[in-house]
Each structure stands twice: as C-alpha cells, then as structure tokens.
Design goal:
2 copies of one chain form a homodimer. Chain A is of the alpha+beta class and about 260 residues long. The first copy, chain A, folds into 2 domains: about 60 residues, Arc Repressor Mutant, subunit A; about 180 residues, 2-Layer Sandwich (Beta-Lactamase), CATH 3.30.450. The first copy, chain A, contains 10 helices and 8 strands. In chain A, strands 5-4-8-7-6 form a 5-stranded antiparallel β-sheet, sandwiched between helices. Chain A has a 3-stranded antiparallel β-sheet with strand order 1-3-2. In chain A, strand 4 and strand 5 form a beta hairpin. Chains A and B meet through helix 1, helix 3, helix 4 and strand 5 of A and helix 1, helix 3, helix 4 and strand 5 of B. The structure holds a DNA duplex (30 and 30 nucleotides).
Chain lengths: ~260, ~260
DNA sequence: ACACATGGTTTGAATATCGAACCATGAAAT
DNA sequence: ATTTCATGGTTCGATATTCAAACCATGTGT
C-alpha cells in the first residue's frame, strides 16, 4: 500500500457524525504515526482536499472536492443519470427507490427518492457505508460485482442487525448463488425490522457491476406478486441506466432478465 | 513537494475539454516519468478518485469525489449557503451574480445565476480557472486574500484578453491598493468586451478571504449610481455569507464597508 | 511485414518517507 | 503558581519508496 493510498484513506474517516477530526484523533483512527499523519493532513490541506479550522485546528473535508465532483458530474454525469431513473421509478411505483455505487470495497448510497405511498416511509441514510451481507443492494454487488468482494466481505465476522440477518458465511455464499441464478437480490428484514427489499445491479462496462438500484418497502407490501412487479421494473430501469452510463449487460445477465421477463 | 501533492496534481489536468486522459498524455501534461505517473494513476484509481475506461484505457475522474463532495456538503454546506445568497441577490437585482472559491493558487467558479434582465446575458463558464488579474473576483482575492497570491500571480506574464486587460505588474499592484482602500474590486471589460463587474470577498475565518462574490453586467448598465447600488448589495450579501460560513469580517474591512455604506 | 504509438513493467540508484523522541502551547487540577 | 495532561507540531537518522531509463506487449495504420 503506497503513500497515496494511505493519505487518501484518511479522508474516509470523516463521516456525518465526525465531520471534523484533529491530529491526534486521526492518528488513533488510522493507526499510523502522528508525524506521518500530520504530514499527510497538511499536504492534503495544501491541495484543498482538507481545510483546517483556524480556531479548533481540526481538519474537515475541503472545497477541492466540490470542484472536482462538479467537473466529474459535468463531463460524466453518473449522478444525474441515476438520480433521474431513481426518481422516475419511484414515481411510477410509489415506493422508496435508492441507488448505490461501489468504490473499492465500499458500497455507498448515491441517491434515493421516497414517493411516500401510504405514509409509511423507510429510513435511509445517505453518504454512509452500506453493509454487504445485510442489504439487497449489497447482496446484488456480491453476486454480480467483482468476485473479490465476497472474500473481502467475509474477513470480518458478519454483524447482526436483526433476527433475520445472515451471519453464517456458508448461508451467505448459498444466498449469493441463489441470487446469481435468479437475476436479482432480495433481503427480508435483515437490516431493519419491517423492511423488505429487492435490488439489481447496473454496469458501466460489461464485466462487473458498479452499483445497484433497489426498492425498499414495508414488509406488508412485499408478496410474490408485488415482488415480481418490483423486479421487473428494476430490470428495465437498470438496463436504461447501464445503457446511459455507456456500459452493457453481461451476456448471462441479459439471458436471465429477458427470459424471465 | 511531496508525493501526495504530485499525485493529486494529476487530477487538476482533467478539464471540461479533456475529461479523460491516457497514460502517455498525462505524462506529457505533468512532465513526470511514465512509470511514476502510472503508479500514481493506478493508486488513485484503487481509491476511487479515478476510473479507467475498459476500452480506451483512458482515465477519468472517479466517483469517490461524488461521495466525499456529498459528505462535505452535508456536514459543511458551503455550496448551498453561497448558492442561496447568489440566487437571492440575482433575483433582487435582476443581474448576473456569481461566486468563486479559492483553493491554493486557483480561483474556480462555484455557482452563478443570471436573472436574465433585458435579454442581454453574460457568458460564464463553470468549473474552470479564473484569471486573477483580469476579473473583479480575481482582483478581490489579490486584494483581500493571502498576500502570497499577488506574488504568485506575477510569476508568469499577465495574459491579455482585451484592450483593457491590465498587463503591467506595476499597474496591477496599484490597482490592488486602490481596491483595498475602496473595499471592493472592479473590472471594466478586462476579460471580455462589453462586460463590467464589481466583486467583494467573503471569509470563512477572520484572516484571509476564501472566495469572492461578483456582479457582471453589460457595460451600458454600469455607471456611478448603479455601481454604488451593486457594491452595497454585495457588501450585505458577503456579510451574510461570511456569517453563515462561521467566519467574520476583518476589522479593517468592516470599518470600510460600514462607513461607506 | 514494418514502423509507430500506446499501456504497462522491471531495475539498481537516489531520494523522500517513516517514526521515535522531542518541543510548544493551552486547559484543568492541585 | 506549579503540576499534569492532552493537544498540535517538528526534528533527524535509518530505511523503505520513488525515480528514470530501458524493456515488453499490444494494437493500428502503411
């Protein structure tokens, strides 16, 4: 692991709950030496990736990120494309729809839209990390993303969120296989009681999935018929997103989706 | 200059016109060795700061930037705060208002809003770099930002855009002094014929300006009376932005603005 | 088949990074 | 006022990473 990776990893310690971090705290979080961390932090700051509060001396994410994110979105509008489709689907179905993007071993929410059907809404927290083994989106990534993801998901014991969370690695692998042949991922109250989801992957190229789009509903609204409807809608939307992103569905995926549809 | 800075600088070569760059091209642009650049690029890619097109093998800005930008904006909503004020001011005056942020030696546009009064609009290009010596915003940064900016602005010869562009370093320094005592920056057709602007800085702390907010109008609508109106409006808006960003106006600035207002 | 450009990899030599120990400052506590 | 603790920040010799030149592999147009 090179210097650049180590430095950039510091940025991942900023979260919604800890938006600014001091030097010593960051050394604790990263497990590296204080002098090293300090050099990294100041160098990141000089480049606008961090800012330092002049009073508390704590560091926070910097405005260079805004500029580069803007530019990326202007020249390669992933976010806009996906958000449009998410909104469209949510409106069409009247349910909560959300999309997440994979980066490395991290799956993070990109956008969501709740049409607010019937008053019951599902909580969904943005800009945080999504656990792979307990969500439909995460399972979709394990099944259709880079093969290495599965191994990586098992290095740590699987956290339990509810009674339904899969914590046995063997069961998880079996579930991944099921999902692969079904062409969609599903999760029943595995991260939160009363919430069921289905998810499908989308592609930026024709190899591995780069993200997933999911529908989450109160468990009372999920049955065989509604699930079929949701999955079909997701398949269509994913195909549209994939096309707009300049990717294409892998042959085996296309086969499943079109035969079952 | 450390490794991190050199690697991060590669990101700055992506522009709206060159949104994806290959290895050799990047070597040329950065002036560094090919092996080095390749290591940097792959390491940036592994962290999601770049993505590589699977066909052309070119690199483009990655989605980690979206995630981090999102998080920054959620925990420290610079962009939202400024955009709100820009919109408000533009609506109030019916003129084009824009804001830019300083990062290092780079001034880049953050947002703009043209209320579209009278059909005449001013062209404004986002996500690019703003020249310091030829714009009101840039001059505001030279006058009220980090003192080192002025030196840095003079290392290269001053590019000429129109007949009115200041290209003589001595004249530039004199102009900076004028602006400092006036409390606002102005520019008359220095970057584009027929466009006049006024600009004032805003602050995230109480030392140096971190950005500028400006009004650009067709030269026919700029006279002593309208300029006074624009400057006054900018002062109020900057004070509001500065406060919302958690900063405060330096004593000497406050004195000028309140006495003249 | 050939030249040429691209992406990517290897090598010893050079250089920048690492990290233990150190300094400086400020806030509580005695 | 002095001590203590925690913080941010700096120094410097050992060492691990980066550098740059040469090389390989692949694809493309002639």
């Amino acid at each position: 692991m090179g210097t650049i990776t180590k430095a950039l990893n510091l940025l991942n310690h900023f979260t919604e709950l800890t938006p600014s971090i001091g030097l010593v705290e960051m050394t604790r979080l990263s497990g590296q030496d204080k002098a090293t961390v300090h050099r990294y932090l100041t160098e990141l700051e000089r480049n606008g990736f961090l800012e330092q509060d002049s009073k508390t001396r704590k560091y926070r994410l910097g405005s260079a990120l805004l500029r580069l994110s803007f530019l990326r979105e202007k020249t390669f509008p992933t976010s806009r494309i996906i958000a449009n489709r998410v909104n469209g689907l949510s409106e069409e179905l009247g349910e909560l729809v959300h999309a997440s993007l994979l980066q490395g071993n991290r799956l993070s929410p990109l956008c969501y839209r709740d049409a607010g059907s019937g008053g019951t809404r599902v909580y969904f927290d943005q800009a945080d990390m999504i656990p792979f083994h307990a969500t439909a989106s995460g399972m979709a990534m394990l099944a259709f993303g880079d093969k290495a993801l599965v191994k990586n998901a098992l290095v740590e014991p699987l956290a339990r969120f509810t009674e339904n969370t899969i914590t046995d690695p063997k069961l998880l692998l079996a579930r991944v296989e099921t999902i692969r042949s079904a062409g969609f991922a599903f999760s029943d109250q595995a991260v939160e009681v009363d919430v069921s989801s289905v998810a499908v992957p989308f592609y930026q190229d024709e190899n591995q999935a780069t993200g997933a789009i999911a529908i989450a509903v109160p468990v009372t609204r999920m049955n065989a018929a509604s699930q079929r409807k949701f999955v079909h809608a997701l398949w269509c939307t994913s195909e549209a997103i994939t096309k707009e992103l300049g990717g294409s569905l892998p042959a085996e995926i296309r086969k499943i989706w079109h035969n079952e549809g």
